[in-house]
Amino acid sequence: MRFFLAFLMLFAFSVAGAKEYFFVEINGVISGYTEKYIEESLKKASSAEGVLVLKLDTPGGILDSTRKIVQLILESETPVVTFVSPQGARAGSAGTFITLASHYAAMAEGSNIGAAHPVNITGQNIEGELGKKIENDTVAFMRSIAEKRGRNLDISVQMVTNSLSLTSQEALEADIIDTVVNSDDGLVALLSEKYGEQTARTYLEPTVLQKVAFFLSDPNVLMLMLFIGIGAVFLEFKMPGTFVFAGIGICAILLFLMGINIIPVNWLGLLLIFAGFALMVAEVFIPSFGLLTLGAVVALGFGMYLLFSREGNVGISVSLGMIAGVLAAVLLVVGLLGRLIVKDFLSKPATGAEGMIGEAGTVMSWNGSSGKVFVHGEIWNAESGSSFEKNDKVKIAEIKGMVIKVERAE
Protein backbone atom coordinates (compact mmCIF):
# COMPACT_ATOMS: atom_id res chain seq x y z
CA MET A 1 0.00 0.00 0.00
CA ARG A 2 2.79 2.39 0.88
CA PHE A 3 4.52 1.54 -2.39
CA PHE A 4 1.30 2.31 -4.30
CA LEU A 5 0.87 5.70 -2.54
CA ALA A 6 4.50 6.59 -3.23
CA PHE A 7 3.98 5.70 -6.90
CA LEU A 8 0.89 7.94 -7.08
CA MET A 9 2.75 10.85 -5.46
CA LEU A 10 5.67 10.42 -7.87
CA PHE A 11 3.28 10.28 -10.84
CA ALA A 12 1.41 13.40 -9.68
CA PHE A 13 4.69 15.26 -9.18
CA SER A 14 5.93 14.31 -12.66
CA VAL A 15 2.65 15.39 -14.28
CA ALA A 16 2.67 18.68 -12.38
CA GLY A 17 6.21 19.37 -13.55
CA ALA A 18 5.51 18.51 -17.19
CA LYS A 19 5.34 21.37 -19.67
CA GLU A 20 4.21 22.10 -23.21
CA TYR A 21 6.90 23.94 -25.17
CA PHE A 22 5.84 26.60 -27.67
CA PHE A 23 8.41 27.52 -30.33
CA VAL A 24 8.28 30.83 -32.23
CA GLU A 25 10.66 31.92 -34.99
CA ILE A 26 11.69 35.59 -34.86
CA ASN A 27 13.65 36.41 -38.02
CA GLY A 28 14.60 39.81 -39.41
CA VAL A 29 14.09 43.26 -37.97
CA ILE A 30 12.42 43.71 -34.58
CA SER A 31 9.35 45.91 -35.12
CA GLY A 32 5.92 46.63 -33.70
CA TYR A 33 4.58 43.54 -35.49
CA THR A 34 7.25 41.42 -33.79
CA GLU A 35 6.13 42.80 -30.44
CA LYS A 36 2.48 41.86 -31.13
CA TYR A 37 3.49 38.41 -32.37
CA ILE A 38 5.53 37.69 -29.24
CA GLU A 39 2.73 39.04 -27.01
CA GLU A 40 0.14 36.75 -28.66
CA SER A 41 2.50 33.77 -28.46
CA LEU A 42 3.22 34.47 -24.79
CA LYS A 43 -0.53 34.50 -24.05
CA LYS A 44 -0.91 31.05 -25.65
CA ALA A 45 2.02 29.67 -23.67
CA SER A 46 0.67 31.22 -20.45
CA SER A 47 -2.82 29.81 -20.93
CA ALA A 48 -1.29 26.33 -21.31
CA GLU A 49 1.11 26.95 -18.39
CA GLY A 50 3.91 26.09 -20.78
CA VAL A 51 7.26 27.50 -21.87
CA LEU A 52 7.78 29.95 -24.74
CA VAL A 53 10.94 29.50 -26.83
CA LEU A 54 11.95 32.39 -29.14
CA LYS A 55 14.22 31.18 -31.96
CA LEU A 56 15.95 34.45 -32.72
CA ASP A 57 17.94 35.64 -35.73
CA THR A 58 17.95 39.42 -36.07
CA PRO A 59 20.32 42.23 -37.10
CA GLY A 60 18.50 44.65 -34.78
CA GLY A 61 15.31 46.63 -34.74
CA ILE A 62 13.32 49.54 -33.42
CA LEU A 63 14.39 50.43 -29.89
CA ASP A 64 10.86 51.36 -28.75
CA SER A 65 9.48 47.96 -29.83
CA THR A 66 12.47 46.25 -28.21
CA ARG A 67 11.74 47.96 -24.89
CA LYS A 68 8.13 46.75 -24.98
CA ILE A 69 9.22 43.17 -25.75
CA VAL A 70 11.71 43.29 -22.87
CA GLN A 71 8.94 44.55 -20.57
CA LEU A 72 6.72 41.62 -21.63
CA ILE A 73 9.48 39.13 -20.87
CA LEU A 74 10.56 40.65 -17.56
CA GLU A 75 6.97 40.80 -16.27
CA SER A 76 6.05 37.31 -17.50
CA GLU A 77 5.58 34.51 -14.99
CA THR A 78 5.66 32.09 -17.91
CA PRO A 79 9.28 31.12 -18.69
CA VAL A 80 10.58 32.75 -21.87
CA VAL A 81 13.63 31.14 -23.47
CA THR A 82 15.61 32.84 -26.25
CA PHE A 83 17.50 30.52 -28.58
CA VAL A 84 19.80 32.31 -31.06
CA SER A 85 19.43 29.78 -33.85
CA PRO A 86 20.24 28.27 -36.36
CA GLN A 87 24.00 28.03 -36.47
CA GLY A 88 25.35 31.26 -37.93
CA ALA A 89 22.42 33.32 -36.62
CA ARG A 90 22.88 36.56 -34.70
CA ALA A 91 21.26 38.51 -31.93
CA GLY A 92 22.50 41.91 -33.04
CA SER A 93 21.68 45.23 -31.38
CA ALA A 94 18.01 44.98 -30.37
CA GLY A 95 18.29 41.18 -30.26
CA THR A 96 20.91 41.50 -27.51
CA PHE A 97 18.42 43.13 -25.12
CA ILE A 98 15.80 40.43 -25.80
CA THR A 99 18.28 37.59 -25.29
CA LEU A 100 19.61 38.95 -22.01
CA ALA A 101 16.09 39.67 -20.72
CA SER A 102 14.97 36.07 -21.18
CA HIS A 103 14.61 33.68 -18.27
CA TYR A 104 16.98 31.32 -20.07
CA ALA A 105 19.32 32.20 -22.96
CA ALA A 106 20.87 29.74 -25.40
CA MET A 107 22.93 30.15 -28.56
CA ALA A 108 23.87 27.79 -31.38
CA GLU A 109 27.48 27.29 -32.38
CA GLY A 110 28.67 29.86 -34.91
CA SER A 111 26.13 32.47 -33.80
CA ASN A 112 27.00 35.85 -32.29
CA ILE A 113 25.50 38.48 -30.01
CA GLY A 114 26.16 42.16 -29.25
CA ALA A 115 26.91 45.49 -30.96
CA ALA A 116 24.05 47.37 -29.32
CA HIS A 117 25.39 50.93 -29.50
CA PRO A 118 22.88 53.65 -30.51
CA VAL A 119 23.66 55.75 -33.62
CA ASN A 120 22.42 58.95 -35.23
CA ILE A 121 20.72 59.51 -38.60
CA THR A 122 24.02 59.16 -40.45
CA GLY A 123 24.82 55.83 -38.84
CA GLN A 124 27.64 57.31 -36.73
CA ASN A 125 28.04 57.75 -32.98
CA ILE A 126 25.89 60.54 -31.57
CA GLU A 127 28.14 63.39 -30.44
CA GLY A 128 27.70 66.00 -27.72
CA GLU A 129 25.27 66.15 -24.84
CA LEU A 130 22.48 64.46 -26.80
CA GLY A 131 24.81 61.53 -27.54
CA LYS A 132 25.68 61.17 -23.85
CA LYS A 133 22.01 61.32 -22.87
CA ILE A 134 20.94 58.62 -25.35
CA GLU A 135 23.93 56.38 -24.57
CA ASN A 136 23.42 56.71 -20.81
CA ASP A 137 19.75 55.86 -21.21
CA THR A 138 20.57 52.77 -23.29
CA VAL A 139 23.29 51.72 -20.82
CA ALA A 140 20.84 52.04 -17.94
CA PHE A 141 18.36 49.89 -19.90
CA MET A 142 21.01 47.21 -20.39
CA ARG A 143 22.20 47.39 -16.75
CA SER A 144 18.65 46.90 -15.47
CA ILE A 145 18.24 43.80 -17.63
CA ALA A 146 21.61 42.34 -16.62
CA GLU A 147 20.93 42.95 -12.92
CA LYS A 148 17.46 41.41 -13.18
CA ARG A 149 18.72 38.22 -14.86
CA GLY A 150 22.11 38.00 -13.13
CA ARG A 151 24.12 38.42 -16.36
CA ASN A 152 27.69 39.71 -16.53
CA LEU A 153 27.15 43.42 -15.89
CA ASP A 154 30.48 44.71 -17.24
CA ILE A 155 30.28 42.76 -20.54
CA SER A 156 26.61 43.68 -20.99
CA VAL A 157 27.43 47.38 -20.67
CA GLN A 158 30.36 47.09 -23.10
CA MET A 159 27.97 45.76 -25.74
CA VAL A 160 26.37 49.21 -25.66
CA THR A 161 29.32 51.51 -24.97
CA ASN A 162 31.94 49.75 -27.15
CA SER A 163 29.67 47.86 -29.59
CA LEU A 164 31.18 44.63 -28.22
CA SER A 165 30.14 41.48 -30.09
CA LEU A 166 30.70 37.93 -28.83
CA THR A 167 30.59 34.46 -30.31
CA SER A 168 28.38 31.86 -28.64
CA GLN A 169 31.32 30.32 -26.79
CA GLU A 170 32.62 33.72 -25.67
CA ALA A 171 29.14 34.67 -24.47
CA LEU A 172 28.91 31.45 -22.47
CA GLU A 173 32.32 31.98 -20.87
CA ALA A 174 31.41 35.62 -20.07
CA ASP A 175 28.19 34.50 -18.33
CA ILE A 176 25.99 36.31 -20.84
CA ILE A 177 24.02 33.19 -21.82
CA ASP A 178 23.20 29.90 -20.09
CA THR A 179 24.19 27.30 -22.66
CA VAL A 180 25.37 26.50 -26.19
CA VAL A 181 23.26 23.95 -28.04
CA ASN A 182 22.59 23.25 -31.72
CA SER A 183 19.11 21.72 -31.93
CA ASP A 184 15.59 22.08 -30.58
CA ASP A 185 15.76 18.56 -29.12
CA GLY A 186 19.01 19.35 -27.34
CA LEU A 187 17.55 22.57 -25.95
CA VAL A 188 14.37 20.86 -24.70
CA ALA A 189 16.47 18.20 -23.00
CA LEU A 190 18.26 20.94 -21.04
CA LEU A 191 15.06 22.86 -20.32
CA SER A 192 13.32 19.73 -19.04
CA GLU A 193 15.72 19.65 -16.11
CA LYS A 194 14.80 23.25 -15.25
CA TYR A 195 11.13 23.64 -16.16
CA GLY A 196 9.77 20.09 -16.43
CA GLU A 197 9.52 17.28 -18.96
CA GLN A 198 8.04 18.03 -22.36
CA THR A 199 4.47 16.79 -22.83
CA ALA A 200 4.03 18.42 -26.23
CA ARG A 201 5.87 20.71 -28.60
CA THR A 202 4.00 23.31 -30.64
CA TYR A 203 5.49 25.46 -33.41
CA LEU A 204 3.42 28.63 -33.65
CA GLU A 205 2.93 30.29 -37.04
CA PRO A 206 2.29 33.99 -37.73
CA THR A 207 -0.87 35.15 -39.48
CA VAL A 208 -0.83 36.13 -43.17
CA LEU A 209 -0.75 39.82 -42.22
CA GLN A 210 2.17 39.21 -39.86
CA LYS A 211 4.04 37.27 -42.57
CA VAL A 212 3.60 40.19 -44.98
CA ALA A 213 4.76 42.63 -42.28
CA PHE A 214 7.84 40.52 -41.50
CA PHE A 215 8.62 40.33 -45.24
CA LEU A 216 8.34 44.10 -45.61
CA SER A 217 10.44 44.72 -42.49
CA ASP A 218 13.53 43.58 -44.39
CA PRO A 219 15.49 46.72 -45.43
CA ASN A 220 16.80 44.96 -48.55
CA VAL A 221 13.27 44.07 -49.66
CA LEU A 222 12.08 47.65 -49.17
CA MET A 223 15.07 48.91 -51.14
CA LEU A 224 14.15 46.61 -54.05
CA MET A 225 10.48 47.69 -53.88
CA LEU A 226 11.51 51.33 -54.19
CA PHE A 227 13.80 50.77 -57.17
CA ILE A 228 11.30 48.47 -58.92
CA GLY A 229 8.57 51.06 -58.41
CA ILE A 230 10.59 53.97 -59.79
CA GLY A 231 11.94 51.90 -62.69
CA ALA A 232 8.50 50.59 -63.66
CA VAL A 233 6.92 54.06 -63.62
CA PHE A 234 9.78 55.36 -65.81
CA LEU A 235 9.19 52.51 -68.31
CA GLU A 236 5.47 53.31 -68.38
CA PHE A 237 6.28 56.88 -69.46
CA LYS A 238 8.63 55.57 -72.14
CA MET A 239 6.19 52.89 -73.38
CA PRO A 240 2.68 54.15 -72.51
CA GLY A 241 -0.55 52.37 -73.25
CA THR A 242 -0.07 48.88 -71.77
CA PHE A 243 -0.45 49.92 -68.11
CA VAL A 244 1.54 46.80 -67.15
CA PHE A 245 4.55 48.76 -65.94
CA ALA A 246 2.27 51.29 -64.24
CA GLY A 247 0.54 48.49 -62.32
CA ILE A 248 3.84 46.93 -61.24
CA GLY A 249 5.26 50.31 -60.25
CA ILE A 250 2.22 51.35 -58.23
CA CYS A 251 2.13 48.00 -56.38
CA ALA A 252 5.86 48.19 -55.59
CA ILE A 253 5.62 51.77 -54.33
CA LEU A 254 2.57 50.91 -52.17
CA LEU A 255 4.51 48.00 -50.62
CA PHE A 256 7.41 50.38 -49.95
CA LEU A 257 5.06 52.87 -48.28
CA MET A 258 3.63 50.05 -46.13
CA GLY A 259 7.17 49.02 -45.19
CA ILE A 260 8.28 52.46 -44.04
CA ASN A 261 5.33 52.46 -41.64
CA ILE A 262 6.92 49.37 -40.08
CA ILE A 263 10.51 50.62 -40.18
CA PRO A 264 10.88 54.42 -40.01
CA VAL A 265 13.19 55.85 -42.67
CA ASN A 266 15.74 58.63 -42.70
CA TRP A 267 14.22 61.23 -45.03
CA LEU A 268 17.67 62.55 -45.92
CA GLY A 269 18.53 59.13 -47.35
CA LEU A 270 15.27 58.99 -49.32
CA LEU A 271 15.90 62.50 -50.70
CA LEU A 272 19.39 61.46 -51.83
CA ILE A 273 17.95 58.45 -53.66
CA PHE A 274 15.44 60.60 -55.56
CA ALA A 275 18.23 63.10 -56.31
CA GLY A 276 20.30 60.25 -57.74
CA PHE A 277 17.48 59.23 -60.10
CA ALA A 278 16.99 62.87 -61.13
CA LEU A 279 20.69 63.13 -62.04
CA MET A 280 20.44 59.93 -64.09
CA VAL A 281 17.52 61.36 -66.09
CA ALA A 282 19.40 64.65 -66.53
CA GLU A 283 22.37 62.75 -67.96
CA VAL A 284 20.18 61.64 -70.88
CA PHE A 285 19.33 65.21 -71.86
CA ILE A 286 22.41 67.16 -70.75
CA PRO A 287 25.86 66.16 -72.08
CA SER A 288 28.06 66.13 -68.96
CA PHE A 289 30.68 63.57 -70.05
CA GLY A 290 29.74 61.31 -67.13
CA LEU A 291 29.79 63.89 -64.32
CA LEU A 292 26.03 63.65 -63.73
CA THR A 293 26.26 59.87 -63.71
CA LEU A 294 29.04 60.02 -61.14
CA GLY A 295 26.91 62.34 -59.01
CA ALA A 296 23.95 59.96 -59.37
CA VAL A 297 26.01 56.97 -58.20
CA VAL A 298 27.33 58.88 -55.17
CA ALA A 299 23.84 60.13 -54.24
CA LEU A 300 22.28 56.68 -54.63
CA GLY A 301 25.06 55.00 -52.64
CA PHE A 302 24.85 57.38 -49.69
CA GLY A 303 21.05 57.41 -49.89
CA MET A 304 20.81 53.62 -49.57
CA TYR A 305 23.40 53.60 -46.78
CA LEU A 306 21.51 56.24 -44.78
CA LEU A 307 17.95 55.19 -45.61
CA PHE A 308 17.29 53.34 -42.33
CA SER A 309 19.95 55.04 -40.17
CA ARG A 310 18.02 57.14 -37.72
CA GLU A 311 17.48 57.49 -34.01
CA GLY A 312 15.29 54.67 -32.71
CA ASN A 313 16.53 52.20 -35.34
CA VAL A 314 19.22 49.94 -33.91
CA GLY A 315 21.22 47.76 -36.30
CA ILE A 316 18.84 48.26 -39.26
CA SER A 317 20.52 48.91 -42.62
CA VAL A 318 20.62 47.92 -46.27
CA SER A 319 23.35 45.32 -46.78
CA LEU A 320 26.55 46.40 -48.51
CA GLY A 321 26.01 43.60 -51.04
CA MET A 322 22.62 45.04 -51.97
CA ILE A 323 24.08 48.55 -52.31
CA ALA A 324 26.90 47.27 -54.54
CA GLY A 325 24.46 45.24 -56.66
CA VAL A 326 22.08 48.16 -57.19
CA LEU A 327 24.91 50.54 -58.11
CA ALA A 328 26.32 47.97 -60.55
CA ALA A 329 22.89 47.63 -62.17
CA VAL A 330 22.55 51.42 -62.42
CA LEU A 331 25.96 51.72 -64.07
CA LEU A 332 25.07 48.91 -66.49
CA VAL A 333 21.80 50.60 -67.49
CA VAL A 334 23.50 53.99 -67.89
CA GLY A 335 26.27 52.36 -69.95
CA LEU A 336 23.77 50.68 -72.28
CA LEU A 337 21.79 53.91 -72.72
CA GLY A 338 24.99 55.85 -73.38
CA ARG A 339 26.09 53.32 -75.99
CA LEU A 340 22.73 53.56 -77.77
CA ILE A 341 22.86 57.37 -77.71
CA VAL A 342 26.41 57.43 -79.14
CA LYS A 343 25.48 54.87 -81.78
CA ASP A 344 22.44 56.90 -82.77
CA PHE A 345 24.51 60.09 -82.90
CA LEU A 346 27.16 58.54 -85.15
CA SER A 347 24.70 56.87 -87.54
CA LYS A 348 23.50 58.83 -90.55
CA PRO A 349 19.90 60.10 -90.51
CA ALA A 350 17.44 57.50 -91.75
CA THR A 351 14.65 59.95 -92.60
CA GLY A 352 14.25 63.37 -94.20
CA ALA A 353 16.41 64.93 -96.91
CA GLU A 354 19.69 64.16 -95.13
CA GLY A 355 18.71 60.51 -95.03
CA MET A 356 18.91 60.43 -98.86
CA ILE A 357 22.67 61.08 -98.95
CA GLY A 358 24.36 58.02 -100.38
CA GLU A 359 21.16 56.75 -102.01
CA ALA A 360 21.17 55.65 -105.69
CA GLY A 361 19.10 57.27 -108.41
CA THR A 362 18.54 57.12 -112.20
CA VAL A 363 19.22 59.96 -114.68
CA MET A 364 16.07 60.90 -116.59
CA SER A 365 17.63 63.72 -118.62
CA TRP A 366 20.92 65.61 -118.57
CA ASN A 367 22.26 68.77 -120.20
CA GLY A 368 25.76 69.96 -119.46
CA SER A 369 26.20 70.09 -115.69
CA SER A 370 22.55 69.72 -114.63
CA GLY A 371 19.53 67.54 -115.24
CA LYS A 372 16.72 65.51 -113.74
CA VAL A 373 17.26 62.47 -111.48
CA PHE A 374 14.64 59.97 -110.28
CA VAL A 375 15.14 59.03 -106.58
CA HIS A 376 12.68 57.28 -104.21
CA GLY A 377 9.71 57.85 -106.51
CA GLU A 378 10.49 61.57 -106.88
CA ILE A 379 12.11 63.65 -109.65
CA TRP A 380 14.84 65.97 -108.35
CA ASN A 381 16.83 68.77 -109.99
CA ALA A 382 20.42 67.63 -109.99
CA GLU A 383 23.88 69.12 -110.56
CA SER A 384 27.28 67.54 -111.08
CA GLY A 385 30.75 68.23 -112.41
CA SER A 386 30.40 65.13 -114.56
CA SER A 387 28.34 64.47 -117.67
CA PHE A 388 25.70 61.72 -117.73
CA GLU A 389 23.47 59.94 -120.19
CA LYS A 390 19.85 58.96 -119.75
CA ASN A 391 19.37 55.92 -117.47
CA ASP A 392 22.86 56.30 -115.93
CA LYS A 393 23.07 55.31 -112.25
CA VAL A 394 24.16 58.07 -109.90
CA LYS A 395 24.69 58.48 -106.13
CA ILE A 396 23.53 61.48 -104.11
CA ALA A 397 26.52 63.27 -102.56
CA GLU A 398 24.92 66.44 -101.17
CA ILE A 399 21.61 68.25 -100.86
CA LYS A 400 21.23 72.03 -101.14
CA GLY A 401 17.65 73.12 -100.76
CA MET A 402 15.69 71.52 -103.57
CA VAL A 403 18.78 70.62 -105.64
CA ILE A 404 20.87 67.51 -105.19
CA LYS A 405 24.50 67.06 -106.15
CA VAL A 406 25.26 63.69 -107.61
CA GLU A 407 28.24 61.63 -108.64
CA ARG A 408 28.62 58.52 -110.75
CA ALA A 409 27.61 55.37 -108.90
CA GLU A 410 30.24 52.65 -108.79
From TrEMBL:
Q: Which GO terms describe its cellular component?
A: membrane
Highest rank taxon of the organism: Bacteria
Q: Which Pfam families match?
A: NfeD (PF01957), NfeD1b_N (PF25145), NfeD_membrane (PF24961)
**What are the NfeD-like C-terminal domain coordinates in residue numbering?**
353-408
Domain NfeD1b N-terminal, by residue range, is: 25-176
Q: Report keywords, A-Z.
A: Membrane, Transmembrane, Transmembrane helix
State the annotated membrane topology for this chain.
Multi-pass membrane protein
Q: Which PANTHER family did the record assign? A: INNER MEMBRANE PROTEIN YBBJ, NODULATION COMPETITIVENESS PROTEIN NFED
Name under which the protein is recorded: Nodulation protein NfeD
Taxonomic lineage is: Bacteria, Pseudomonadati, Deferribacterota, Deferribacteres, Deferribacterales
